Amino acid sequence: MAKKVVATLRKEGAGKEWTRIIKAVKSPKTGAYTFKEEMLPAELAKDAFKA
Asked: What are 1-51's pLDDT values in tens digits?
């Protein structure tokens, strides 16, 4: 599935402007960690980790 996503984002160099961010988020209910995955423009990647 990841290959298909990468292939669709590679239209004339447009795929290089996106960043995949994976965060570990702790559940307040169980205390277990889950992973949240996002695709963001490269210039917003640093701001996503600050929030």
From this structure: 455 555 555 555 555 688 888 989 999 999 999 999 988 888 888 887 776
Chain mean position to CA 37: 5
CA distances from 21 to 27, 29, 33 (A): 18, 24, 16
What are the φ and ψ backbone dihedral angles of 31, each rounded to 5 degrees? 85, 0
DSSP state of 46: H
Tell me which amino acid residue 43 is.
E
Global pTM value = 0.52
End-to-end CA distance of the chain: 28
24 touches 42 (CB < 8 A): no
